[in-house]
């Protein structure tokens, strides 16, 4: 019998017992519920809490709300919090305390989530069971325990009406509560309790005797759960001294190792995304091939695993057991439409913490998910999946699925920081026009009152690099960077502004921009950058026949950088020319200076009037920092 079939049998048992009582046979046992264990017979680990457990457990700020919900009248209680935030632990403690004498059934949420990845709703049989109205007298007291439900199942629980006598207790990742992912609010008879992202100051104080030193904002699971075994499974050798994982070397030992790593990474990243609960075999093979090719060096393509290698790797992972829990590394589920796979939950939690160490999905991951969501029946889910990808930190995938502003489909609930991340991801993928749309949205979503100064300056910097933009708008963006940006970006923006002012024939304004660039580079403690800006300023002074200022500028450049640098060589050459021929006419001076100029120096304009200016646009793009 499938997981859904067993659960429906339990629900039928509860309804059967209710009917028996109405017919005057209250002592007749329910055929399924009688065989279920009681809550107080199970420990926390059997309810999904990762060992080791804090003992004795300390009181959480939300415990009283969870206990009030579990002890209340609502048939469905959902506790939502971040991964490893302690949601399962808090709900399990409350359930054992208040409903310990209840029978419990623990269906696998991965098997109840529906068989169509990304697009389909939860299992139709599950939806039918949850939608039946509650009527009759009290039943036998059955608790349905659902740990770590996904979006489809969470949406179904928001409107669930289980039979009388059946309580549904569920945990979910708080990221799934985003309105673009789970749009509906909980209905009547459903209580939703949200846990904060991390421990509060009072929780840290109460936790000290149990778990030792903790910091405000830390997650409970990150402090008490040993993730090292899971990390070792994901990336062998990562935690061993002197060894570090490199994606390009996964296949160097043998093809089998590369196949195992590709399958495991594909399954774990799919689970991290959190949209489906189980990965159908054809899609697992497609993703694993992409990961296998991404994990092999270009000069070692002979070790790329084939389909047979990946199949053998799946079989090995299904039979492999975790050293600590004894659970399979990769679970196999036989659903109505075929075989699906899902990794053990602790692997997903461990992989979340590996992003800074190279655990990032390859570009093909986003392409494949995008292809799946390009089907006509799936396009309505693109926005929700894109927002979930953004919440998970899968920025490349999010940019594939989310359209940039001002498209009406652009996400309205996206934070300015997320808009900036989307712009950076699009810029890195070579789509500069789309990136500029996201950066423009950052400026529209943030007030110019100093509250988001750094973020606005970063977005404005990238907009200021667009040489095809309207010069007035570009000037506004660069001025914002000079005013509010970090010193290095402010210095580059000053140089770009100087070029705009030169092209407009406003040479006094150009001189002010170059001075600002010099000052910003000095604040950044970057002599090379300061010398670059000072050289441009000296060239401008020379062309303007400010010989003394130009000479001082060139000498300052030589004090900042060595003679081997291009700036020092140009300054030394310019000083030699000044010493040799200070009285040459203006045209000859400007011709020679143009050979050493760096693109921001104006051509000869005798009267320096804007209507007479005729200059080439600068071809120079200063280095910028994110």
Keywords:
626 residues; Rossmann fold; five-stranded parallel sheet; three-stranded antiparallel sheet; elongated; disordered C terminus
Brief synopsis:
This protein has 626 residues and is of the alpha/beta class.
Largest sheet, if any? Answer: 5 strands, parallel
Radius of gyration: 32 Å
Average of pLDDT: 76
**Oligomer category:** single chain
Q: Helix- and strand-based class? A: alpha/beta
- Weakly predicted, low-confidence segments: 1-33, 133-139, 240-253, 594-626
Instruction: State the CATH topology of the largest domain.
Output: Rossmann fold
Shape: elongated
In CATH, the architecture of the largest domain is: 3-Layer(aba) Sandwich
- The number of strands is 8
Q: State the end-to-end CA separation.
A: 55 Å
Fraction of residues in helix: 40-55%
Give the count of structural domains. 3
Output the strand order for the largest sheet. 2-3-4-1-5
Describe it for me?
With 626 residues, the protein is an alpha/beta fold. It folds into three domains: 3-208, Rossmann fold (3-Layer(aba) Sandwich), CATH 3.40.50; 229-360, no CATH class; 486-626. The chain has 26 helices and eight strands. It has helices at residues 3-22, 63-70, 87-98, 109-112, 124-131, 151-157, 201-211, 220-224, 228-234, 255-273, 281-294, 307-319, 345-352, 363-372, 382-392, 395-401, 416-428, 432-445, 453-464, 471-484, 487-503, 507-523, 527-543, 547-560, 566-580, 586-596; strands at 76-81, 103-105, 142-149, 166-173, 190-194, 279-280, 330-335, 338-343. The strands form two sheets. Strands 2-3-4-1-5 form a five-stranded parallel beta sheet, sandwiched between helices. It has a three-stranded antiparallel beta sheet with strand order 6-8-7. Strand 7 and strand 8 (338-343) form a beta hairpin. Helix 23 (527-543) runs parallel beside helix 25. The longest helix is centred in the first third of the chain and has 20 residues, at 3-22. It is elongated. Residues 1-33, 133-139, 240-253 and 594-626 have low confidence and may be disordered.
